Backbone:
């Protein structure tokens, strides 16, 4: 799965290519400036090659599959999906309960164990292509079970833990599947 690039990055890339094309065209239309023409073409070729090379590198799929994360799914005790939140393209996602003080991105106030969920319980943060979760010093804690594992790790407050697709997040007794 390739990383989707932001619309602004695409616009900036197109502007840079347009400037490079204009620079080459200007240099080529100047009579008797052979050195300027060769220099403009060479510099443009180097810059364009660099942009293409870095664009291909940033589009690589991460080894740990973290970029494949696009949603968080609330699961009941039978493994049935109750609710989904799409997080693809987000940088930070707050998990907790909506209140008069503020809103959260993943609202668990109507869940079975809502009384155990803090107002600001945990936060998901994306750094590059990697996602991390950290407990926001909640009362009942946050746990993580890595995909394919049977043990659950309780997170220490404000210590980020890398997560990937298939991991299960435990907010109090509420289960969230990362996909």
Residues:
């Amino acid at each position: 799965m390739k990383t989707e690039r932001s619309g602004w990055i695409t616009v900036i890339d197109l502007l840079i290519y347009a400037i490079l094309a204009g620079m080459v065209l200007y240099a080529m239309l100047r009579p008797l400036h052979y050195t300027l023409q060769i220099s403009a073409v060479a510099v443009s070729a180097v810059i364009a090659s660099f942009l293409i090379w870095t664009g291909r590198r940033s589009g690589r799929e991460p080894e740990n599959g973290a970029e494949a994360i696009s949603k968080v799914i609330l699961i009941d005790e039978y493994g049935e999906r109750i609710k989904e939140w799409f997080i693809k393209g987000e940088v930070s996602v707050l998990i907790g309960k909506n209140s008069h003080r503020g809103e959260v991105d993943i609202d668990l106030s109507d869940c079975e164990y809502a009384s155990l969920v803090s107002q600001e319980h945990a936060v998901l943060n994306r750094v590059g292509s990697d996602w991390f979760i950290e407990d926001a010093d909640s009362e009942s804690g946050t746990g993580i079970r890595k995909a394919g594992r049977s043990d659950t790790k309780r997170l220490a407050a404000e210590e980020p833990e890398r997560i990937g697709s298939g991991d299960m997040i435990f907010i109090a007794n509420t289960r969230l599947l990362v996909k």
Observations:
- The CA atoms of residues 92 and 163 lie 14 Å apart.
